[in-house]
Amino acid sequence: MISSQNPSQTAESLVAALEKYGQGDYIGESISQLEHCLQAAHQAKLSGACDELVIAALFHDIGQIIPLESTKEARMNLRESDENVGRVGHEAIGAAYLRNLGFSETVCRLVNSHVAAKRYLTAVNRKYYDSLSSASQKSLAFQGGPFQGAELRHFEQDPLRDEMVSLRLWDDGAKLVDVESTTPRARSYMEIITAHLAQTAA
Ligand SMILES: [Fe+2]
Predict the structure, then answer these.
(1) 22 inside domain
(2) Average pLDDT, the chain
(3) For a tag site, which of 43, 97, 143, 184 has the least CB within 10 Å?
(4) How much distance in Å is there from the Cα of 70 to the middle of ligand 1?
(5) 6 C-alpha vs ligand 1 centroid, how far in Å?
């Protein structure tokens, strides 16, 4: 995939990549990566979220599924965890990948935040930690554990904090089985992705 493509070509390539590489199991859960991403985007849409947030929800785990050779970031930072908790640093890989394709800084920051938001929520809400799936609780340790001190204050003051938290909660809720028939497919987001890329390129 190359960033010199026009917006509709980039949207098409990216949706095709999500459909192709998202067929594998979502780490430790009973659904595919693709269905997980589609459920997250659908929740964002149902909540009346803006297009950037819906797009971020759709692609929040793109760094988890794209082939490793796809990004320089991936080659530099990636290590596959031997505890089956997914790619450590996948949020930064995904953000770098999307930035390279022309997505807005807001979309990239939101994608990059979904692990930080979990670290934030586990720091401020014990019930949130208890609500996480065991796979998600397990991966938290590899992601640095709950925020403390300066990291916690920094996240708290981020202007996108509320959007980051919303994305995280949709991410956590996007693990339902057998809801394919009522979950819109990736192609239904083609129009907003294309419009977004056209706008950022203008
Ligand atoms: Fe996710």
Answers:
(1) yes
(2) 88
(3) 184
(4) 19
(5) 28
Q: Label residue 142 by pLDDT band (50, 70, 90).
A: confident
Residue 31 sits in a domain of what CATH number? Answer: 1.10.3210.10
Residue type at position 17: A
Q: What mean pLDDT do residues 45-57 have?
A: 98
Residue 26 is given by DSSP the state: P
Asked if residue 82 is part of any domain, the answer here is yes
CA–centroid distance, 175 to ligand 1, in Å, is: 9
Query: pLDDT of 90-129, one tens digit each?
Result: 899 999 999 999 999 999 999 999 889 999 999 999 999 9
Neighbour count for residue 43 (Cβ, 10 Å) = 21
Contact by Cβ (8 Å): 1, 17: yes
Q: How close is the Cα of 55 to the center of ligand 1, in Å?
A: 13
Q: Please tell me the distance between residue 35's alpha carbon and the centre of ligand 1 in angstroms.
A: 10
Full residue range of the structural domain in which residue 190 is found: 7-115+174-201
Can you give the pLDDT at residue 138?
Answer: 87
What lies within 8 Å, CB to CB, of 57 at 6+ separation is: 37, 40, 41, 43, 44, 49, 167, 170, 171
- Cβ atoms 33, 86 nearer than 8 A: no
Number of independent structural domains in the chain = 1
CA of 202 to the centre of ligand 1 (A): 30
Distance 9 CA to ligand 1 centre (A): 25
> What is the Å distance from ligand 1's center to 4 Cα?
28
Structural domain contains residue 106: yes
Residue 196 lies in a domain: yes
